[in-house]
Structure formats: structure tokens, C-alpha cells
Amino acid sequence: MPPADDIALSVSELNRRARQALEQDVGDVWVEGELSGVSRPASGHVYFTLKDERAQLRCALFRNRARFIAAPMRDGDHVKVRGRVSLFEPRGDYQLIAEAVQAVGEGELLAAFERLKAKLDAEGVFANARPLPYPPRHLLVLTSPTGAAIRDVLAVLAARWPLAQVTLIPVPVQGREAAPAMIAALGLLNRQAALDPERDAILITRGGGSLEDLWAFNDEHLARAIFHSRLPVMSAVGHEVDVTLSDFAADRRAPTPSAAAEQLVPDRRELLQRLQALESRLLRAQRARLDTEAQRLDHLRARLRHPGEVLAFRRRQLEQLEGRLHRAMRARLESDRRHEGELRRRLALRSPTHQLEQAERRLTLAGQRLRLAMPRELARHRERLAAVSRELQAVSPLAVLGRGYAILENDEGRVIRHAADTRPGERLAARLGEGRLALEVLPNEDAAD
Fold first, then answer.
1. Which residues of 185-215 are buried (b: 16+ CB within 10 A; e: fewer)?
2. pTM across the whole model
3. What fold is seen in the domain 109-266?
4. Could you tell me which residue ranges the Exonuclease VII large subunit C-terminal domain spans (predicted)?
């Protein structure tokens, strides 16, 4: 025993040290076990116990992490929990602060689900999109006879559309026998549909559950059977967050059994309200039409006259029209006379004789201007020609030749510019200021030296 006079730790200090030791030495771990005592207070936190055959562990999943857990946590579920080991100091409770919760085997199942989904999608098994009859004449429901799904479906159908004819096809919806039983039922129903055309829609449904509970609806053969069904199929499996291959293969999916029933049939109360509203509109329209026709009848009755009055009125109209016609004819004749006089006056102004006289006067004036302009124009052109001749003479090669120069050309007419361009005995032509000379090239003795 330690001496009594040693300094004793307070309970809170001991719990604090224990918490720090647990958090530092153990840290984050994965723990596998069975859920028990799952509690969800109003705070949003989740408290539960994780246990196995020989021990149990208190766990806390706080609200900021609990909202990321998609699957519901229920007593008896076998899960893996990731968290850090700690101690709740006020009570001295050893606990696990959970960060994530995952169903055991869920990862493998999800991977298998995604592989099979991709395979069936590539084959076109999810391409169904046929319209379902609304409402169906005879609905065939494939589900468990003792499950909550059939009760929910029947309750919604009875409330919304009591006229719906429903036939329950009892099949297991969980376990190994579920998928083969539903496949066999689909085949039988499609064969019977040819004999009973009233059967026109199939609903496959069940309530919620874990991924393992719903796995029968991820069966590849069941998905193909739904795809090849001649009757349109609606799938409503699990809760809103649950999705199965049957949902993808079906013509339509509903998030829950109750939602499926709501989508399949109209609401009789809404139809009754619409019918009452249409009846009220019809009565109002009928009364309005009767009132309008009554007013129209009164108006027509007021306009109805004796045939003698009508004939007298028409006779007065005819006399008025006749008078207007005579006045219009006289006005038209007077207008035509004035127009004719104007045309005669314009024709006289445009007479060929008048135009010829004007043309002769213009020709005489033009001749006079031409006789006056010709000497001035000739003098101007002579001056310009003399200036151009002087400019041409200044730059002409002939003027250079006139000063004593000559141009030598060979037989080909090419100008000789260098002595080296000639050879002895070659015949050349010399162009002078006046005339030409024929020359012969003699040997140059100085050049030979």
C-alpha cells in the first residue's frame, strides 16, 4: 500500500490522464461487432453499443458525422466502425468516438453490384421505358404476402382508386429462393397475359432493408427477366435511398411501395374535385350562353320589320343611289373635258413643227459658235505642236548626229558601242546626220602589237 500522506489524484485528473493515454496509445482503429441499444436523441447524435460474444463497447457517433451515414443503423446489424478510443471524463465511461460505420461485406457487395450494373447497361438491359397504363385495368403485384409492402400498396390503392383490380402473386423477397421465384412468376404472368388481355401491368415491390436483404433484386437473371417481360413492369424496392438492378431494368421505378401505388393510379378525390370544378364551369358556361342567346334573340326581334317597311326603305335607298349616280356621271364628264383640253394644249406645245423651229434656232447658234471657235482652236493646237516639236528636237538622236556624230550598226542592226565588238573584215553601216555610209573594219596594227 502507498503511504497515506502521498498526494492523491482527483477523480477528474485521473480520468483526464486515462483519456489522454487511451487517445495517444490506441488512436484510430477499426472495430467489428454487432449493433445494440441504438439511440437517436433530439440532438442528432447517435449512441450505441458494439458487442461480440465476450465483450461490449460503448460508442458515440456525433451529429456532424451521423449525417454522412446513408444506411440506417439498427440493432442486430453486423458492422465495422472506425473511430478513436477515448474516455468520457464526467462519468468515467470508456467509449469509441465513431467516425464512420460500414456494414460488414457491404464493400464487396457494392463492388459486385457496380460490375454487374455496368455489364447489363452495356448489353442494353436498362433500356426499357415503356409507358404503363394509367390506371391499369388489372395490376399484378409480386411481393411477400406477409410484408408491409403489400399492405402499403393496397391501402394507397383503396384510398386513391377503389376500382383498381389487384392480384397478389406471393413470392419470397429475401434469400436464395427469392430471385428464382420471381423469375418463374414473371414467366407465368407473361404467358397468361396472352389469354387475359385485362392483365396489363406488373409491380415488383418489397419494403426496406440492408443491402444483403435486398440482394435478391440485384440478381442478373431477374433483371433480364424484367427486361424481356412483355407486360410493362414497375419496380419499388426498399426505401428512397435504395437502388437495385431491378429498378434499372424496369420500365419505371418508384422510391417506395406507397409511392408506386400513387404513381400507378389517379387520386379519386382529386378527380372528384376536378369533376365538380368542371361541372361548375359547365353550369356557368350554360347560364352565360343562355343569357347571351336571349339578348341576341331580343336584338333580332327588335330588328325584325314588316316587308312593306323594308321595301320602302330599299326604294328610298335606290332613289338616293340613282341621284348619286347621275351626279357622279356629270362630274366625270366635266373632268374628262377639262383633261382633254389640257392634253390638246400639251400636244400643241409638243408639235413637230414647233420642235423643228426650236432645233433650227439651236443649230444656227451652234454653227455661229463653231465658226468663231475653229480659228482659236487651230491656233492653240499649232502652238502646242510647235512646242512639242521643239522638245522632241532637243532630245532627238538625229540632233546629236547633226553635230557630227555617227551611229555604227552591224549587219543585224545592233549598235556597236565598243571596238572589241567588231572583227576585221566585218561590214558596218554608219548613220550620219544626213545619209548613211557602208564601212569595212580593217585590222588594228597597234592593237596587234
1. bbeebbeebeeeeebbbbbbbbbbbbbbbbb
2. 0.46
3. Rossmann fold (3.40.50)
4. 128-438
